């Protein structure tokens, strides 16, 4: 019944119909999850986005985005505007990532981005059974209904867990459980996961959380270190150029999964 309803919705929306034909049931699906530096605050100053979209983040008919209404559309910045809706979103790493993957692997086909990140969330709010966790799973399962497969989870979170010493100390075990639960619930035990080690902090325990991230040694989990990337005027969120660079770093990490199998 759900696929039938989906087709009815597509028929009522000409733009989505064209997308449906181009995907051909062969989407490469990427989950974007975490908190505000994943949803993107690049170019946001005093709660206003400057609307500058770098060339690396331009739209492409082969890059789709699952909307809050669970429909595919051609992706555009701000990627998380209807997901992380309580805040002003700007440039994140998602579009830069997708464009970089297409540039380096033009035969990959259509990329389907599933934005799920929400600002100010800590790792406990992403635990199995939580609303954010369930929303991420539901969105991913819906994305799969039209065909394709999940290629990777891109995860950037942890700033909120630097506020409390106990949270910082428990971060490693909570993160490992989160990754394991996601793989189990998606029935993908070897799902590639690319996490980002913190560049900024909200509290005093940044180094404990960073070390917890760097100490994750699960199979098929890669860590991209954002430390040293340029931050914006609030000293918490990455700047637009940094988000672009981070997206390219994430793309390089993803492409390494393929080269390692050759």
Describe the structure.
The strands form two sheets. The protein has a seven-stranded mixed β-sheet, sandwiched between helices. Strands 2-3 form a two-stranded antiparallel sheet. With 262 residues, it is of the alpha/beta class. Helices cover 39% and strands 16% of the residues. It has one domain: SGNH hydrolase (Rossmann fold), CATH 3.40.50.1110.
Short note summarizing the structure:
Pfam families: SASA. With 262 residues, the protein is an alpha/beta fold.
Q: Tell me the helix content.
A: 25-40%
Give the number of DSSP strands: 9
Task: Report Rg.
Answer: 17 Å
Into which percentage range does the β-strand content fall? 15-25%
SSE order: HHEHEEEEHEHEHEHEH
Number of helices: 8
What would the principal axes of the Cα set say about the shape?
Answer: globular
Organism: Nicotiana attenuata (Coyote tobacco)
Signal peptide: 1-18
GO molecular function: hydrolase activity
Domain Sialate O-acetylesterase: 27-255
Q: Strands, helices and their partners?
A:
Blueprint lengths: L1 H10 L2 H10 L3 E8 L1 H4 L4 E2 L2 E2 L13 E4 L5 E3 L19 H11 L5 E6 L15 H15 L3 E8 L8 H21 L7 E5 L8 H9 L6 E5 L14 H22 L1
Parallel strand pairs: 1-6, 1-7, 4-6, 7-8, 8-9
Antiparallel strand pairs: 2-3, 4-5
Helix pairs in contact: 4-8, 6-7
